[in-house]
Amino acid sequence: MLTSLVRANLSKSSFRTRTDLGVWRSSSRKLFAMQEVTAKMHDSAIKEPKSGDPARVGKKKDEKFMLKTAKGTRDQNPVQMALRERVFNVIKESFARHGAEQIDTPVFELKQTLTGKYGEDSKLIYDLADQGGEMLSLRYDLTVPFARYLAMNKITNIKRYSIGKVYRRDNPAMTRGRYREFYQCDFDIAGQYDPMLPDAECVVIACEILSKLNLGEFRVKINHRGILNGMFKVCGVPDEKFKEICSAVDKLDKSPWEEVKKEMCEVKGLSEEAADKIEAFVKFNGGPELIEQLLEQDIGKNESAKKGLDDLKLFYDYATEYGVEKHILFDLSLARGLDYYTGIIYEVQLVGEGEEGVGSIAAGGRYDGLVGIFDAKKRSTPCVGISLGVERIFTLLENQLAESKAQPRSVQTEVFVCSVQKDLVKERMRICAELWREGLKAEHSFKNNPKILVQLQYCEDKQIPLAIVFGENELSQGVLKLRNVATREEVVVPRANLVEAIRERLANTTV
Asked: Can you tell me the distance from the alpha carbon of 193 to that of 199, in angstroms, rounded to the nearest whole number?
C-alpha cells in the first residue's frame, strides 16, 4: 500500500528545485523502511504468537507431541473388552434377577447439581468450560444424577440400575484399578418401605455378584451414620464439626490413626481429648455381639446411636435369612465421607493373604434426604443403593488371566466358512448368508482366494468352535465338511442339513 502511494505521488508530482527532489527522496526512503518493519512485525505475529495467545497455550519450545491417552485413562483391547462384557453380563443378570429397571442419565450435569454433595471430595469434580451460558461438570457418581432424575420426574418408587462412566480428578493408581475415568454399576431402591428390607437386599446383590465372579474371599463392612453421629456426640465433637470429623475418620482405611488424629486436631480444630475418645471407638469391629455391647454402654443411651444400633441388629437378622451373614463385619471405623448418607453405610472389600484387605470394590448406603434437595417443595424420597466400582474387578481378573495364561474369546463367531480352492468366494458368501438368516454367528475371509492354512489358523487364534471346509469335490457331491477346530475332527454333512448339524454340535461345545 505504501509503495503504490509513493509511486502515485511520483507520477503526479513536478519538482521545481533540487531541494524539493531531495526532500521527496528522503521521505520515500522513510516510507519504504516503515513498510519493511511493518511486514516483519506481521510475519512475526503469525509465526510466534505472544505468550497467553491460544496458539501458545500448553506449548513449550521445541516440544514434541507425545501420542498417548490422557492421565488416568486407558484404551481397551478386544480381549479386555471381552472380559468386561462377561463381567457386565454377570452384573446385569443379577440386577435384573432382583427386579430392577435400567435408566441412564447424561454424562455431564449442571455444576450446581453436583456441588455440595460430596464433602471434601467435591474438589475432585471435573468442571467444563462455559458452553452457551451453562456451567457444567462431568458426573462424579451415578447417585446424585439419579436423585435429580427422581425429583425432576416426580418419581417416588422405583428399583433401578444404571451402568456408566464417571469422572474424578483423583491421583490415579493404574495398577490398582484407580482411574480418572471409570465405570460404576449402581443398584438403587427408592420408596417408603419397612426398615432394613431394601438395605439388606442391596448387600445380597453385591455378595451374589462377587461370588459369581469367583474373585476370592470378601467381606462387607457395615456401619450407620446414626451410630457415628452418636459416637461423635458422646466423644465431645461439636455438632458443626460432625461432617468434617466424619471425612477424617473415612481415611482410616488408607492412613494410620496418627495421621488421622493430626488432621482432626491441627487442621480441623478438634480437641485431643475428643480425638482420643474417638480412637477408643474406631478400634472396634465384630458381629451382632458388638451391637449388644454398645447398646449397654453410654453410646447406647444416645438416641441417634441407639436407632442406628437397632437398625443394624435388624439388618443382621435379615442377612442371616438370606445366607450372607458370614460376609458381614460391623466396623466402627467405616465412615463414608460423602455428605448425602443418612443411615446404614457399607463397603465391600476383597481379602488377601493374612486377612489384609486388597481394595474396596463396592460401597453404598442409605440417603433419605438427597432427593428432597432437588425437589421444589423439599419432598423427600427415601433411597438406598450400592455401587460397584468395576475397574478394580477388571484389574483383578486381568491379573488372574495373565497368571493362568488363559485367553478369553474376543469374537462370538460360532462357525467360519473356509474354501480350499480358488474362485469359491461366492459360494462362501451364499453359505454365510444362509447361516446369518438362521441366526448363527458366521464369517469368512475377505480375500477371494485365501490359503486354507491361513483360514484354519484364524479359527484357532480366535477360538472359533466350528469351521465349514469345502472345495469343488464337496460341492459336486452336495456335501460339506464340518470341522471341530479344537480337536481337528471332521465329519461330512449333507448341504441341506448344514444348519441342523451346526446347531447340534454347538449344543455339545463350550463356546
From this structure: 10
Q: What are phi and psi of 463, to 5 degrees?
A: 55, 40
As annotated, the binding site for L-histidine includes 141-143, 168, 184, 188, 336, 340-341
**Are 218 and 210 contacting, i.e. CB atoms less than 8 angstroms apart?**
yes
- Cα separation of the two ends of the chain: 77
Matching residue, cell 443411651:
301
**Binding site members:** 141-143, 168, 184, 188, 336, 340-341
CA dist 155 to 25, 134, 464, Å? 86, 26, 47
Q: What kind of architecture, by CATH, is found in domain 415-507?
A: 3-Layer(aba) Sandwich (3.40)
Class of the CATH domain delimited by 78-403: alpha beta
What is the SS3 assignment for 323?
Answer: coil
Check residue 187 and give left, alpha or beta (phi > 0: left; psi -120 to 50: alpha): beta
d(CA 228, CA 241): 12
Residue 136 pairs in a beta bridge with 110
Please tell me the distance from the alpha carbon of residue 204 to that of residue 507, in angstroms, as a whole number.
33
What residues does CATH 3.30.930.10 cover in the chain?
78-403
Strands 218-224 and 328-331 come out as parallel
For a pLDDT cut of 90, what percent of the chain falls above it? Answer: 69
Nearest to 418 by CA among 430, 428, 429, 406: 428
Is residue 184 within 8 Å of residue 367, measured between CB atoms?
no
DSSP state of 239: G
Helix (H, G, I), strand (E, B) or coil at 312: helix
For residue range 20-55, list pLDDT tens digits in order.
445 445 554 554 455 454 444 444 443 444 444 444
Q: State how far the Cα of 206 lies from the Cα of 104, in Å rounded to an integer.
A: 21
Kindly give, in sequence order, each residue whose CB lies less than 8 Å from that of residue 481, ignoring residues fewer than 6 positions away.
Answer: 468, 469, 470, 474, 490, 491, 492, 493
Average pLDDT over residues 361-380: 93
Question: Pick the residue with more confidence: 39 or 478?
Answer: 478
Alpha carbon separation from 501 to 168, 218, 456, 491, 494 (Å, rounded) = 52, 44, 20, 10, 9
Residues of the chain with CATH 3.40.50.800: 415-507
User: Which letter does DSSP use for residue 354 in this model?
Assistant: G
Give the integer Cα–Cα distance in Å for 140 and 144: 8
